[in-house]
Task: structure prediction
Amino acid sequence: MKKLLIANWKMNPESIAEAKNLFMDVKKVASRLNGVETVIAPPYIFLAELRRLYTGKRVMFAGQDVFWEEKGAFTGEISPSMLKNIGVSYVIVGHSERRALGESDEIVNQKVLASARAGLRAVVCIGESTRDHTDGAHLIFLAGQVESALAGLGGKMLSRIAIAYEPIWAIGKSAEDAMRPFELHETVLLIRKTLARKYGKAHAMRVPVLYGGSVEKENTLSLLTDGAVNGFLVGHASLSGPKFNDILRVAHSA
Ligand code: 13P
Result:
């Protein structure tokens, strides 16, 4: 499986000129690395224009969110087929920052199903807000998040899914505060087990499991190898071309 590196720009940068500069910086490096699939998730408003700047196959695009209906009277929303029709192949669903604004497990599930139906790959975000090391409650919570996000999704659609584990307590900090690789490994096993219970082991092993939360150049290698993830969802470090490119290079050579 190729490593999957997703740049979640969140609500940045402020102008299309800056967005283009950042994209061109990343494109230069990403388009040369055959061991990683690089995915850029800019704000909607920059998506189509950046998409037009690239004709190759190694850099893909993602929406940061999506609505679950195809079209109609839903002011302010963007549908999965709109994303698909401008050449977007991924969509982030259920990011903790959207859940904090009121997105429920049921809404996340509808968005996942609609995205998969439209032929997008949904990057389903899960993550606990705190972690008590003694009772393992976070593991039950995470398994529940996976199950509810994928409710009603048939095995044939599983290739349209990636799971991004983003512990909320580790987001927006630095490599020193990020999750430790051995703890990540435990969570990755839990996610795979949860998938295997529903879809069988062989299918479960093909779903990319990503980590997000203060990924920087310094912790890329250890999280990838000891954490046993297939890639990353990168926030703040993806807003600097040189910093994100360093992460791409480390992941490529891992
Ligand atoms: P940071 O890399 O800034 O911690 O953000 C992680 C994230 O939320 C990516 O979706």
